[in-house]
Write a structure and sequence with these properties.
Oligomer: single chain
Shape: elongated
CATH topology of the largest domain: 2-enoyl-CoA Hydratase, Chain A, domain 1
Strand content: 15-25%
Number of helices: 9
Number of strands: 16
Mean pLDDT: 91
Length: 339
């Protein structure tokens, strides 16, 4: 899912990066892991902190702490987060996406991000939302407008439903994705964020078309569309998912699992369903990104591994001839039964 960066104070650190500043650098990273990770309860922190500082005892620069911090990061068992030191990123190598990806999907992904759209069966608006990682308000608004515009040019007086294709959406920032289809989701609560104990920590709500994005420093950003093609929240929606659908793509699918007159069609997703949060570390381009929460839909289901379809359709992807795409054909069949 999306994340915004929290700056950890570097007031203790001198420009010369003394050894004591390196110690505090390591301690800052450990503090973030211990207090913010979804998996913090699974770690023996005294043992890990002592071992990490021992591994970093000879480090004279931030870069030289990498082996020690990798050791600590691996202890979290976080397959969705990563650690970046001196612009070099590291993810736990024990976790690899084992979900098979068809050659058809690989070939389409090579073409880069495209908001594919059109009309299916003369009465269903189709849009494919791809990965988007932008974090600035301007970038989020621009991407949301692209989504809405691409959808609306295929919405006519004859439109009876919507096909939302997330098969090429590997993640990024979910909030502009929500914003771009906020008139499809409609107003109301869709999901809750929960900790490892199942306790609610937040919720995703759309109020009067506005999405409020909380930041780590306590501030908020409000996202909304200045122009839409009307209220589409009563229309049936078929959401297509598959092995590439990950992270924010999975979060969007989960939101629709709470929406009435919606169905998930396709294959199980990639399995990066945790919500991530990013935190800056002292220095330049140093950060740690952690899985911070799980998502629960309004039916009470907490998504831990991946998102499974309501209607399973294995293979049959055809992005060159969408009318012959097996998942789109299943979507049309379901939509036809909704009116």
């Amino acid at each position: 899912m999306s994340f915004f960066l929290l700056f950890v104070s570097s007031s203790f650190f001198s420009s010369a990066q003394r050894v004591d500043s390196v110690y505090r650098f390591v301690d800052s990273a450990l503090n973030i892991m211990q207090h913010r990770s979804l998996f913090k309860e699974n770690v023996k922190w005294k043992e890990v902190r002592d071992s990490t500082h021992r591994l970093a005892i000879e480090a004279a620069t931030y870069g030289e702490t990498v082996p020690a911090l990798r050791y600590a990061f691996n202890k979290l068992g976080d397959k969705h987060g990563w650690l970046t030191i001196n612009d070099s990123s590291y993810a736990n190598p024990n976790f690899k996406n084992q979900t098979p990806i068809s050659q058809t999907l690989k070939d389409v992904l090579k073409k880069g991000p495209v908001l594919y759209n059109g009309i299916i069966a003369k009465k269903y608006a189709y849009i494919s939302i791809h990965f988007f990682g932008g974090q600035t308000l301007e970038g989020m608004n621009a991407f949301a407008r692209q989504i809405q515009d691409s959808l609306c040019k295929n919405v006519t007086k004859n439109t009876k439903g919507i096909i939302l294709d997330l098969r090429l959406n590997g993640g990024g920032n979910s909030f502009p994705m929500y914003q771009g289809i906020s008139n499809v989701l409609g107003n109301g609560k869709f999901t809750e964020s929960v900790n490892s104990l199942g306790q609610k920590e937040g919720e995703f709500v759309i109020r009067k078309g506005v999405i409020t994005l909380p930041l780590n420093n306590g501030d908020t950003i409000k996202l909304f569309l200045e122009k839409t093609c009307g209220d589409l929240s009563k229309m049936p929606v078929a959401v297509l998912i598959g092995p590439v659908t990950g992270s924010s793509g999975e979060q969007v699918a989960i939101a629709f699992s709470s929406r009435k007159k919606s169905v998930l069609i396709g294959e199980p997703t990639a399995g990066y369903v945790t919500a991530n949060n990013g935190f800056e570390l002292p220095g330049i381009n140093n950060e740690i990104v952690l899985a911070e929460s799980l998502t629960r839909n309004l039916k009470g289901k907490t998504f831990i591994e991946n998102v499974k379809p309501d209607i399973e359709v294995m293979g049959g992807d055809n992005f060159n001839n969408r009318e012959q795409d097996a998942k789109i054909r299943a979507a049309v069949k379901w939509l036809d039964r909704q009116h």
